[in-house]
Amino acid sequence: MSVFNRDTDDEFARGARTLVIYPELPGKQSLSPEARLQEACGLALAIGLNIIESKYYRVRSPRASTLLGGGQVEEIAEMAANLEIDLLIVDSNLTAIQQRNLEDKIQVKTIDRTGLILEIFGERAATAEGRLQVELAHLDYQAGRLVRSWTHLERQRGGFGFLGGPGETQIEADRRMIRDRMAKLRRDLEEVKRTRSLHRARRQRAPWPTIALVGYTNAGKSTLFNKLTHADVMAEDLLFATLDPTMRQIQLPGVDKAILSDTVGFVSDLPTQLVAAFRATLEEVTTADIIIHVRDIAHPASDAQRDDVLAILSALGIGEQSLDDPDSDASARTDIPILELWNKVDLLNADRLEELQNLAQRNNNILLISAEKRIGLDALRHNISDRISKDNETRTVKLANSDGAAIAWLHNKGAVQTIAEDTECMTLTVSLSPQNWGQFDKLFGHSD
């Protein structure tokens, strides 16, 4: 079926025969060409595309007209024709002119990395806020690309229609429509930002500590979130399985109440439109008491993925943490402590596991876990509890044995360290936050 068929439907878009190309450009790349191509294929699979072939090209002198060299474009065109390709994904950021020229020369509908990620986000956004953020990012991206013959503003399916549509639009009318729509979306997102600020202020008055999960997409954040909170957040072996942030209460030893937040996964070359649009959501990270950076330590590009995550955190105003020095302290480099979780240790061989265990023993900001196999989760809970409770006060309280309500309250809210009993009374040594001690004194009339 020709890609220029205007009757393209949802099933065709999802099952499109796809060719994935990664142009390796001059300069330092965070991922190897093989890893980057594998990630691009993962992104394509996440939206149900049928990958027929994938290949990377070394581009020594990027062309303003097509990015790739002339011979490379001819080779891709021949490959696309022979394999009956419907869709070309170029895993790089293309200008509108480059995108149009590639489509003209290869005769296949073409999208770049930003367009693909926006398409995934458009399909995955489940909440009203998420849809607002993705639509704003999409319109910002699309505003400069209205020269394309199949550009349109109608939603044909869950995504934003890069993969199929009704045909040419009236460019000037669309531009005016985009400007008006973007202005409204920004007003709506400002309201979301104010609402989030109120919610954060309410949590801080409570006060409940907040722990934010961050990490590269598919690092295992949602699986960990589900194990720790007994929730049912989507956790599949897909890039960007989670888009909308989720918050749940988490039970920690000696801690009355804490909130765990699961966030969207990061990725290398995350579109600037998405970073800007999702700033209101990502602000949850900037106000957390603890940041837990979940890493897929079994991934061959784990170090590069770490660098990408830290770069995005830095863009959000959170200082970078370097682990080049195993004895370094993250809290010395940022106001928010960062705990690194090296996840998926069950996938490592014995030698690699021993090597990482030795590294982790030298740095108290690193823990080894397997969220899927529940390995190391108890140690994680105690580590988080210790960090939250570092400002706690320890007191010795003497209560009558009959004062069951006060005794139960202390066990529930704090960490009871010692208990001494006689026939009439019970003496407890308890660690509690200053706020909880105030509440205890108010409820039960005890004080220092």
From TrEMBL:
Keywords in alphabetical order: Coiled coil, Cytoplasm, GTP-binding, Magnesium, Metal-binding, Nucleotide-binding
Magnesium among keywords: yes
Subcellular location: Cytoplasm
Alphabetical list of CDD domains matching this protein: HflX
Domain Hflx-type G, residue spans: 209-392
Highest taxon of source: Bacteria
Stored InterPro entries: G_HFLX_dom, GTP-bd, GTP-bd_M, GTPase_HflX, GTPase_HflX_N, GTPase_HflX_N_sf, P-loop_NTPase
Assembly: Monomer. Associates with the 50S ribosomal subunit.
Name by which UniProt lists this protein: GTPase HflX
Protein source organism: Sphingorhabdus arenilitoris
Encoding gene, per UniProt annotation: hflX
